[in-house]
Specification:
alpha/beta; Rossmann fold; 8-stranded mixed sheet; 8 strands; globular; Dienelactn_hydro; AB_hydrolase_fold; Dienelactone hydrolase family protein; hydrolase activity; hydrolase
């Protein structure tokens, strides 16, 4: 399928954001997916997730919540930006809401068929949108920052949840995923969890050189927070799980 991509700029949280929009060729109406990037920033991986979703028949917006900044190789600067944000629910909701409104305003979007995909801190942002009532039909989060596991926060949801993490992720452990899943279970929510054996945090992130070019091997050559590692096999599997969830939910070709 032919797709079209472009940057979308908007202001929120005191910053000028630069999101990435990908859309199928044609007039739609298309199901829509909001993507929240990992704490390092909106990089080519998340842009390519949006592009691949467009190939599969979805309108996808990869939001930006760092004002165009990339923090890969600068873990201290990343944490200085991300940790205060993760501690402020209203900020997360505002950032996510503006991006979602931009996506929903795009010609060709079907507002009754929306989903969310989030990585790391971006996973927390989309979860906060769901918690305040955004009617996502499906939510996929990969090693997300998780909110407190309170069943009463999720009782009104009709979303299907996919929760993913690596067995060796110290920042989003399998135990945390299952505790959150239990809260969803107690709330009557449809959920599933994928635990990828041997995978660490951000296992989808391929190592790069300082100039941004791909580095050989699976070991990161630049500074990261502890517990990060690339696992190409599980990166492929996790992406297929996201496509399967969306395909099942929207009955499209996944």
């Amino acid at each position: 399928m032919m797709i079209a991509t472009r940057e979308v700029t908007y202001d929120v949280d005191g910053l000028s954001m630069v999101a990435h929009l990908a859309q199928p060729d044609g007039e739609g109406p298309w199901p829509a997916v909001l993507i929240g990037h990992d704490g390092i920033g909106l990089d080519d991986y998340q842009r390519h997730r949006a592009d691949d979703l467009a190939v599969h028949g979805y309108m996808a917006l990869a939001m930006d919540y760092h004002g165009g900044q990339l923090y890969f190789g600068r873990p201290d600067a990343m944490l200085a930006r991300v940790m205060p944000l993760m501690a402020d629910v209203e900020r997360m909701q505002a950032i996510g809401r503006v991006a979602l409104d931009i996506l929903l305003a795009m010609p060709g979007v079907d507002p009754d068929r929306i989903a969310a995909l989030g990585y790391g801190a971006g996973g927390r942002i989309v979860l906060e949108l769901a918690r305040i009532g955004v009617p996502f039909k499906a939510i996929a989060v990969v090693h997300p920052g998780l909110p407190d596991a309170n069943a009463e926060d999720w009782t009104d949801l009709t979303s299907t949840f996919l929760l993913c993490t690596g067995s060796e992720d110290p920042l989003c452990t399998p135990e945390q995923i299952l505790t959150f899943g239990r809260a969803l279970q107690d709330a009557g929510v449809d959920w599933r969890a994928n635990i990828y054996g041997g995978a660490k945090h951000a296992f989808w992130a391929r190592p790069t050189n300082p100039d941004g070019s791909p580095a050989a091997g699976i070991t990161h050559t630049e500074a990261t927070v502890p517990g990060v590692g690339y696992h190409p096999k599980h990166a492929t599997r996790a992406w297929q799980a996201v496509l399967d969830l969306l395909g099942e939910t929207f009955q499209t070709l996944g």
